[in-house]
Design brief:
The protein is of the alpha/beta class and 303 residues long. The protein is 66% helix and 9% strand.
Length: 303
């Protein structure tokens, strides 16, 4: 009897899981055809087999009845392994995983959600992206169809272009936003980031300084400057920025750990091995929980 009950329970779980799994299509052309026939949008989940957050998002959000009930009336659900669809990945400008697109029934992007959120927050955020007047699709339409002079519209569209690495379009939008409001500090930060991407660190410094003048209390400006210098391989500049942040800002423990860790990475890339070992020891002495990370750094130095 117990075996029978156990078998039935497992069978019901499998049926339930499969019913949720079957909601997801794996053909782009088929999903587009269904969306056109039923006048629905498409939720397209770009995932990879090596992405742990993709698995977590699918297991903890996309297979749950709350999500399925949210999506079933207005959306066609589509899952694609990004590694098998490089042309679509390139077309939709996908650079991180998981990335979930909301498409209209012509396959045009309405907006996207990148990364993982818990179920309730994810559904809420997805809903906002699909229907908000401020989504990517609507912002472009507003600027195309009206003579809009709202700084926030240009800024938000600039952020969307930046996320998609459409840097020229982003640059134009941020410039327009500060043309409308010269005190718009956040736009100067993005212009600084874009200048680093364009391999113009002096111009980046100029924009970051303007951002700092407009928002002097925002320590994230200095952090943006340091991180963008690092990711664009200006390691000496990045190191100098991190040093200044440690001197001039009240930092949380986690912020201090991260900044000191990146100072070590900068020194590694600058081949400053003696200074690297000194900074590793300082970090270990100050924060014992960083030893698993510094152990990896030590091992790499020996190679």
């Amino acid at each position: 009897m117990k075996k029978f009950i156990l078998t039935i329970t497992i069978l019901m779980l499998c049926i339930t899981f499969n019913s949720y799994s079957s909601e997801w299509n794996t053909s782009f052309s088929k999903s587009l055809r269904i969306a056109q026939q039923e006048n629905k949008m498409i939720i397209l989940d770009f995932y990879t087999n090596w992405c742990g957050w993709c698995v977590k998002l699918y297991d903890e959000v996309f297979t749950k009845s709350k999500f399925i009930n949210f999506a079933k009336n207005d959306f066609v659900l589509l899952k694609l392994n990004a590694d098998k669809y490089p042309k679509l990945v390139e077309h939709y400008r996908i650079y991180s995983y998981p990335t979930v697109l909301i498409l209209n029934n012509k396959g045009v992007e309405i907006d996207r959600v990148s990364g993982y959120l818990a179920e309730d927050n994810y559904i809420k955020y997805l809903n906002e992206k699909a229907y908000s007047i401020g989504n990517f699709y609507n912002l472009k339409r507003i600027l195309k169809e009206t003579n809009n002079e709202n700084r926030h519209v240009f800024f938000k569209l600039g952020e969307a272009y930046y996320e998609r690495r459409l840097y020229n379009d982003a640059y134009k939008c941020f410039l327009k936003s500060i043309d409308l409001d010269p005190n718009y500090g956040d736009s100067y930060v993005y212009l600084g980031n874009l200048s680093y991407i364009d391999k113009n660190p002096e111009k980046a410094d100029y924009y970051y300084e303007l951002a700092r003048k407009n928002v002097p209390s925002n320590k994230n400006i200095d952090l943006e400057k340091a991180m963008n210098a690092y990711y664009n391989k200006y390691f000496a500049r990045s190191l100098s920025c991190f040093d200044d942040i440690l001197k001039n800002n009240n930092l949380s423990e986690n912020e201090t750990k991260n900044i000191k860790y990146y100072r070590i990475l900068c020194n590694i890339n600058l081949n400053n091995n003696v200074q690297t070992l000194k900074l590793i020891e300082e970090l270990e002495n100050e924060f014992a929980d960083m030893k698993p990370y510094t152990k990896i750094l030590r091992e790499n130095l020996k190679k």
